[in-house]
């Protein structure tokens, strides 16, 4: 559920008309709903009520500091995967004891940064990383809590580019080797092995793969405890999908995910962490864009808009579907027409939708991409020297620009021309 509804013929974000934001900010822009972010965080938080728990928002989905602050104020922790994300979380006021550090390629510099600033735990993904973290922590005279991410070799049944739990994926250690890797970790100075981490992929639309993974984690917990490890925290990852296509079956709800987790690992008495990103932020955001031209092709109509693949890369990168709707509510019964909806970038891949049925639009009209709050702005680039677009946060009847559109000069002046030229 989200808070983007038509009211008096105009698409609103909560109590603010999208057209009013566009008039002030200019298209294209991202807009997020505080109420939706809050609601989604709370759904997860409540779904884990049965355990001592922390919902660590996977901030890679949307790392604007205003979003982090909003979630942090609700009690969220953060799942970070880089030094930059760690610093951003800290800058947004998230305390180190609520930050977990994930990722296959943490550098020693990143480890040091987090150890200096405070960290809840590292989710270790390999033996060389374990060795490096042990050395860094020891050299600083500290001991850091760690979990080890296991790769349970289950099929997440999602897009191949965002599946992470099969043995051929680069993530985690093979679960079959967990016993020896845990023994090695326990022998290293500077590390305190406290738990198990698993994350099998993103945009999962079924519960079954989670169930398989959690069962394997439960078995492993028992095995490792029998080996003498004090396994007391389970990080069950993120990955619950959202309904991008309204006509499709809705994916499972956080409540069902929480119930499944309780069924599979509740009896172990562990503290529980989860790392949802997309479900918290995805349907809390729109990408709003203006139609520049409607052009007649040989056999089709192109809707050319002022947003492009550099602003929202998901359709080009994953063939992802985003619902695209007019900002002015179409009259009831209006006949729909077919468009190829494209951006201005000089590649055919800069296509958001092909042969999409929509109410007719004209140059100057605004359209909104739904479900663009996660993996939208964060994956944007300046390709074709298009400045990053602004982000706006709505709260009831107020809105604020939470990232300004840079000027051309701000974008251009980051380059320097060497003196010999
Ligand atoms: N935890 C870990 C270790 C992850 O790698 C991810 C996502 C998450 C949590 C959050 O997963 P979520 O709840 O958001 O599904 N750019 C892609 C998605 C990449 C996901 C990467 N990892 C997209 O636009 O679909």
From TrEMBL:
Keywords on record: Amino-acid biosynthesis, Decarboxylase, Lyase, Lysine biosynthesis, Pyridoxal phosphate
Protein's recorded name: Diaminopimelate decarboxylase
SUPFAM superfamilies the record matches: Alanine racemase C-terminal domain-like, PLP-binding barrel
Function: Specifically catalyzes the decarboxylation of meso-diaminopimelate (meso-DAP) to L-lysine.
Sites where the protein binds substrate: 278, 314, 318, 347, 375
Active site feature: 346 (proton donor)
Keyword DNA damage part of the UniProt annotation: no
Quaternary organization: Homodimer.
Taxonomic lineage: Bacteria, Pseudomonadati, Pseudomonadota, Alphaproteobacteria, Rhodobacterales
InterPro entries: Ala_racemase/Decarboxylase_C, DAP_deCOOHase_LysA, De-COase2_C, De-COase2_CS, De-COase2_N, De-COase2_pyr-phos_BS, Orn/DAP/Arg_de-COase, PLP-binding_barrel
Protein's UniProt keywords contain Amino-acid biosynthesis: yes
Domain Orn/DAP/Arg decarboxylase 2 N-terminal residues, every copy: 36-281
GO molecular function, one term: pyridoxal phosphate binding
Stated family: Belongs to the Orn/Lys/Arg decarboxylase class-II family. LysA subfamily.
Pathway: Amino-acid biosynthesis; L-lysine biosynthesis via DAP pathway; L-lysine from DL-2,6-diaminopimelate: step 1/1
PANTHER family, alphabetized: DIAMINOPIMELATE DECARBOXYLASE, GROUP IV DECARBOXYLASE
Highest taxon listed in the record's lineage: Bacteria
């Amino acid at each position: 559920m989200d808070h983007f509804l038509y009211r008096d013929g105009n698409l609103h974000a909560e109590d603010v008309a999208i057209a009013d934001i566009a008039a002030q900010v200019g298209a294209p822009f991202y807009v997020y709903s505080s109420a939706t972010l809050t609601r989604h965080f709370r759904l997860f938080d409540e779904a884990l009520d049965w355990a001592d728990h922390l919902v660590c928002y996977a901030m890679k989905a949307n790392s604007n500091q205003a979003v982090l602050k909003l979630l942090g104020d609700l009690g969220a922790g953060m799942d970070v995967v880089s030094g930059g994300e760690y610093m951003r979380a800290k800058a947004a006021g998230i305390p180190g004891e609520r930050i977990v550090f994930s990722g296959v390629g943490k550098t020693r510099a990143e480890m040091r940064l987090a150890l200096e600033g405070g960290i809840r735990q590292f989710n270790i993904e390999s033996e060389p990383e374990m060795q490096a973290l042990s050395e860094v922590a020891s050299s600083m005279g500290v001991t850091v809590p760690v979990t080890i991410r296991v790769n349970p070799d289950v099929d997440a049944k999602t897009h191949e580019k965002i599946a992470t739990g099969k043995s051929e994926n680069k993530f985690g250690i093979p679960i079959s080797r967990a016993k020896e890797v845990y023994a090695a970790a326990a022998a290293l100075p500077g590390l305190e092995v406290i738990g198990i981490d698993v994350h099998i992929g993103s945009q999962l639309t079924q519960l079954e793969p989670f169930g398989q993974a959690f069962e394997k984690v439960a078995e492993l917990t028992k095995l490792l405890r029998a080996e003498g490890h004090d396994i007391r925290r389970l990080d069950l990852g993120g990955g619950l999908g959202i309904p991008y296509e309204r006509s499709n079956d809705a994916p499972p709800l956080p409540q069902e995910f929480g119930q499944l987790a309780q069924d599979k690992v509740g009896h172990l008495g562990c503290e529980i962490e989860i790392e949802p990103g997309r479900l918290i932020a995805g349907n809390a955001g729109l990408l709003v864009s203006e139609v520049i031209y409607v052009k007649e092709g040989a056999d089709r109509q192109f809707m050319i808009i002022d947003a492009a693949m550099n602003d929202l890369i998901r359709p080009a990168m994953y063939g992802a579907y985003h619902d695209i709707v007019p900002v002015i509510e179409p009259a009831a019964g209006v006949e729909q027409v077919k468009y190829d909806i494209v951006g201005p970038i000089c590649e055919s891949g800069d296509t958001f939708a092909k042969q999409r049925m929509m109410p007719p639009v004209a140059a100057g009209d605004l359209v909104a991409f739904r479900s663009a709050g996660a993996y939208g702005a964060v994956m944007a680039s300046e390709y074709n020297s298009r400045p990053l677009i602004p982000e706006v946060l709505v709260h009831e009847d107020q809105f604020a620009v939470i990232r300004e559109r840079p000027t051309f000069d701000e974008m251009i002046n980051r380059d320097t021309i060497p003196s010999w030229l």
